[in-house]
Specification:
By secondary structure, the protein is mainly beta. The chain is built from one helix and six strands. The N and C termini lie close together (6 Å).
């Protein structure tokens, strides 16, 4: 998330009850698993509206999460059917999914 210079957003854990937390929500297709969001360490700033410091994000802020794509979904999307005569679970250029780097579940790191 890029926050313009001079601006801020509340962190995912604001220190005051009346402040609204920043939350990243990911809507994944059915069968795709999204891991927990890892938020960056917030900055503590003194702002005019609060007597105490405020927990905020500023500038270029990276929120990380993992995505797991099950092998079965990968097979269906590529149109490869296990056990089909003449196919034997192999995809392009005769390589199996394992040879192409596709294990049981492939994890992909995401950046904001």
């Amino acid at each position: 998330m890029d926050i313009p210079s001079g601006y801020h957003v509340n962190s995912n854990r604001p220190l005051e009850k009346f402040l609204i937390a920043t939350q990243l929500q990911i809507e994944a297709p059915q069968g795709i698993r999204v891991g927990p969001i890892i938020y960056p360490r917030p900055l503590l700033r003194s702002l005019k509206f609060s007597k105490s410091k405020v927990s905020v994000f500023e500038g270029h802020t990276i929120m990380r999460f993992s995505v797991t794509v099950p092998r079965s979904r990968d097979v269906v999307e590529r149109g490869i059917e296990r056990g089909k005569k003449g196919n034997s679970g192999r995809g392009e250029k005769g390589k199996t999914q394992k040879q192409r780097g596709k294990g049981k579940g492939q994890r992909v790191k995401g950046n904001g």
